[in-house]
Every structure is written in C-alpha cells, then in structure tokens.
Amino acid sequence: MMATMNDDGQNECSLPDGWEILTIGNSLQIVRGISFPKDAKTYEPQSDYVACLRTANVQREVEWDDLWFVPSKHVRRDEQYVQPLDILISTANSLVLVGKVALVKTIPYPSTLGAFISLFRAPSGLNSKFIYYQLASSKVQADIRSRASTTTNISNISISRLTEVTLAIPPLSEQERIVNRIEELFSDLEAGVAALERAQIGLQRYKASVLKAAITGKLLNGKLEIGENELPEGWHWATIEEACERIVDCLHSTPKFQDDGFYCVDSTWIKPGRFVFQRARFVDEATFNERNRRMVPQYDDVVFSREGALLGVAVHIPEKFEFCLGQRMMIFRPSISLDGKFLEAFLNSELFKKQYAKQITGSASPHLNIGDIRKSLIPLPPLDEQRRIVVEVERRLSVVREVESAVEVGLVRAGRLRQSVLRSAFEGRL
C-alpha cells in the first residue's frame, strides 16, 4: 500500500500499489470557454453558428434542450470545440454548484463553451469516465469548492487553482475495471433515481395545475368554461401595484454578520409555500435598525426571491417573525382586499412567471428589478372567495408536500449511496 499525505504531512489514506497522486494540471488538458458580444447569441441554430454550452447545461448529464448559438468565428482554436468524452466543469456559479461536472456522451450540434465553464480532456493512458467519476466524488468536489473565490453574487474558481486539485490514478487497466464496476452498481441506482425524479416532475405539474385553477376561478368550479383571458363573474384584473399596499425591494449591500443578534434570512431559506431553515446568520441591532425596519415581514406579507437560482419563489408569512431580509428578496404587502395566501399562490403560478419572464436579466445570476413586475396583472375574486380558494389549495398541496418529502428523502439516500460507491472506488476498495 502507498500512503498519501495531507497538507500537514499526516497520513490521509492509503492507496494500493501502482496508484499515484497527480494534479489536474499534470494529468489533463484544460480548455477555457470563449467570449463573445451579448448580442451575438441566438436561441435557434443557424448557418455558421455553433452551440455554446453554459452553466445551465452542466447537469448530471449535459442538457441539450436549452442552448445558445453563437457565430463560429468566435471559436478561436479547434480545441475549443467540444468532443465526445470531454468533461465539462462549471467554474462560475453559486458556491454549491462551482465544480459541478458533466460527461459529454453525444454531441447533437457542433459545440463550444461559454465563459463560465471549461472542459477537461483526458490524454491516452487515462480513462475519461474514470476521471469524470472521480471529479464528481464528494471529496474532489469539496476540494474544488475550497479553492473557489466568492463575491457578493457569485463564486468562481480560476484555472490556476483548478490545476492544483489532486486525483488518485491507478494503471489504465485498473481504471477500466473500476469504471465497469461503478456503472454496474449505478445501473439499478440510476433507475430508482429516475423514477423519483419523474415523480417530482409529476408533483410539480400537479401543483402548477392547482395554482392555475386557483387563480383563474376554476378550482371551486371544476367544469366552468372560461376563456384563457376571461374571468368568472365578480372577478377583475388589477396590477400588482394596485393590489398591494406596498412592495419593498431589499437593499443591495451585504450586511456584516455576527454570532448572535437578529436573524437575517436570504433566498436559500424559502421554497414555494414554506420556509426551510438553514444555517442561522445574524446582524447586530444597529444594522438591523438602519437596514431592515422597512424589510421586516409582517403577518400576511409574502416574501419573494427576485434573484439567483431560486428566482420566482414566494412564501407567505403566517405570523410575525423578528427577522430581517438579506439580499435578493422582496416583500409584497397585500391590501385589505387581497388575502396573503391567495397572493402567494399567484406569485408562485405560471401565469405570473410568464409575465415577468422577458424581464429577467443576467446569465450568471438572473434577476428581476422591482420595476419589472409592478405592472404585472393579477386576477382578483372577492375576498371571501379568495379565502375559500386558499382553503382548497392548502388541502390539495398538503398532500403533495408529504409525497415530496418522501421523494426528497429517497433522493438524498440515493446520493449518499452514490458517493459511498465513488469513495470506495477512488480509495482502491471497490
């Protein structure tokens, strides 16, 4: 057995004879993405254009359904064209997504890379799948993120820091045997994960249909024939600005956090319809008073995430919390003629999302400005009908939440099992 050493010179783990520790810089070719003017991209393939992959395309597998296309003249070197078995890596994203990798299996269009991703290309003597699986392991992912730099809105890792990441490399024949064993073990696991993910998609579609029926007057009148832009008798259209007493945007500066004081909540705490309590962050009383008296949610307010991966998620405040809001959030305060839970249903609905979709700006960190949504239209029934609708929505979605929780538990377990397999593989114990 060969011992490897950590940064303090202590034994970290043991590897079988014949394995060696190499850095990414010493073992893989690294290709950076291209740059191009913002107005050069299009969403449909054209003559002399190539697909330009970006962070949104780096999923567990490469996502080819949401592509940009750019003129091929912006690809300066042949190596910047994506090849089969290349490994894509997200180099600029939220911190939890920096380092995310995807293996290129098929290439439906001639393709290159955007500025926020890079690729690794394995030379002869290295199995690309072996490298991909090791890069996807929790140990290497944590190593990559530990080397990233973080600003207010985005984290990134430089190529020079990526080159320092280490990999455990056995002889090629052993790499191939390990890949075969990993894929054998993953086959049943992936089938189960796919079933859970299909269930998630089905639940999301059902929730969307419930919210659509709720805010168009069909939930309590199941067979009511209403045109796409028509409303039931007694309903009317209003702008968000008219329907709310107040719409408050968060401040854009980052507060100084400390170990105790007032809770400061950001967009990672919310999912549609519920809070998910994360690591507590606090601000001192002076910061709280200066920054957030205007940003303290009240009972029946709705908090809305206006930026980042969770853009468009809204949650109702069921009681008064003593917390302030960090960045990326808005508060909608309903008027006396608008029920907060009905407003929450609308803000989470596809009807609202379609209205603001074209106003979203920013590719690395998409966001909305408060002015982009003030004139959005909300369908309003009488207040007592809003409350009856809310009761029915809650009844249906409470069942959905129970099933969603069970699905999430299953996916977490599958992820842990996946990482257990990878950990064993790259310690030579598989």
Polypeptide structure, described:
The structure is a single chain. The chain is an alpha+beta fold and 430 residues long. The protein folds into two domains: 2-170, DNA methylase specificity domains (Adenine-n6-DNA-methyltransferase TaqI, Chain A, domain 2); 236-380, Adenine-n6-DNA-methyltransferase TaqI, Chain A, domain 2, CATH 3.90.220.20. It contains ten helices and 25 strands. The chain has helices at 24-27, 128-135, 138-146, 159-162, 172-215, 240-243, 285-292, 340-347, 350-356, 383-426; strands at 2-5, 11-15, 20-23, 29-32, 49-53, 68-71, 87-90, 92-93, 101-103, 111-113, 117-121, 149-150, 155-156, 166-169, 236-239, 244-249, 262-265, 270-271, 274-275, 282-283, 302-305, 314-316, 323-325, 329-334, 377-380. A four-stranded antiparallel β-sheet has the order 4-11-7-9. Helix 5 packs antiparallel against helix 10 (383-426). The radius of gyration is 25 Å and the shape is elongated. The two termini are 15 Å apart.
Order of strands in the sheet with most strands = 4-11-7-9
Name the assembly state: single chain
Low-confidence stretches: 1-11, 223-227
Instruction: Count the domains.
Output: 2
Could you give a short account of the major beta sheet?
4 strands, antiparallel
CATH domain class name of the largest domain: Alpha Beta
Q: Overall 3D geometry?
A: elongated
Helix content: 25-40%
CATH fold descriptor of the largest domain: Adenine-n6-DNA-methyltransferase TaqI, Chain A, domain 2
The strand count comes to 25
| Helix/strand class | alpha+beta
How big is the Rg?
25 Å
